[in-house]
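[Structure tokenization] protein backbone as discrete codes

[Encoding] learned vocabulary of local backbone shapes

[Begin record] amino acids and matching fold tokens:

___
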Amino acid sequence: MASNVSDEALPPELLDSVQEFNSLIDEVDNVLNQLIDNEFASQVDKLERLDQVKAYLVVTYAMNSLFWMYLSTQGIAPKDHPVKQELDRIRKYMNKAQALYDKRKAMKVDKNAASRFIKNALHEPTKIDESKSNNNVKTSRKLHKAHKKAKKRKMDDSRS
């Protein structure tokens, strides 16, 4: 696809840029030939559905961008051309696909792990703890009775 650039036709400062541009056009041509030969479709079919959507959107956007560049080289204002609306529409779908992708990659709660975490974080009394608890209850009852008796004595002492 690249044509040989004559050294006489271009100023020396543009020669390297034009040659690089020609090599890039050759690369684009190779990619487009692969797309046309269905090599791309056979590779994309192996991907997950959301990745397929993203791949097709990128290719569609790239092809429309190339058409935008073509219009620019022909002196046509691409902003006034329907390709502008098409690029906007594709960009909108790319944003939707990205939102779905982000949602899929969002952190998910492992319910089993969460229940184990909570279960281990909560205190479960053991037999030793239960015996201590029974002793604490007995002690608490004794203190309560002693407190009652002390109150009763104070009342009796104040009456006399």
Q: What stands out?
A: Residues 127-159 form the longest helix (33 residues).
